[in-house]
């Protein structure tokens, strides 16, 4: 299974601490080893702690059950491919 970073954003806990969150899409290979069609989206803090998505703006750290809220306007999606003119 390969994971590709597709976005980043900041989230804040109840005490006001800000965390960098990375959004990944993981391909799920089928039984015959060919890439599956449905990617799975996962979320991790920049330091590696796994998270689960509660709704569009709320996430929960799996190890500590701390709830984080996405900061508005901090989403950084993937950058567009650069086209080089010849």
Structure commentary:
This protein is mainly β and about 90 residues long. The protein has strands at about 5-10, 20-25, 40-45, 50-55, 60, 65-70, 75. A six-stranded antiparallel β-barrel has the order 1-2-3-4-5-6. The radius of gyration is 15 Å and the shape is elongated. Residues about 80-85 have low confidence and may be disordered.
In short:
The protein is mostly beta strands and 86 residues long. Helix content is 0%, strand content 45%.
- What is the overall pLDDT average? 82
Q: What string, H for helix and E for strand, traces the elements in order?
A: EEEEEEE
Which range best describes the helical content: under 10%, 10-25%, 25-40%, 40-55%, 55-70% or over 70%?
under 10%
Work out the count of structural domains: 1
Q: Based on CA inertia axes, which overall geometry fits? A: elongated
Give me the Rg, rounded: 15 Å
Span of the ends, CA to CA? 36 Å
- Based on secondary structure, the structural category is mainly beta
Biggest pleated-sheet summary:
6 strands, antiparallel, barrel
Beta-strand share of residues: over 45%
Topology, number of strands:
7
Strand arrangement, largest sheet?
1-2-3-4-5-6
Number of helices: 0
Low-confidence sequence ranges: 81-86
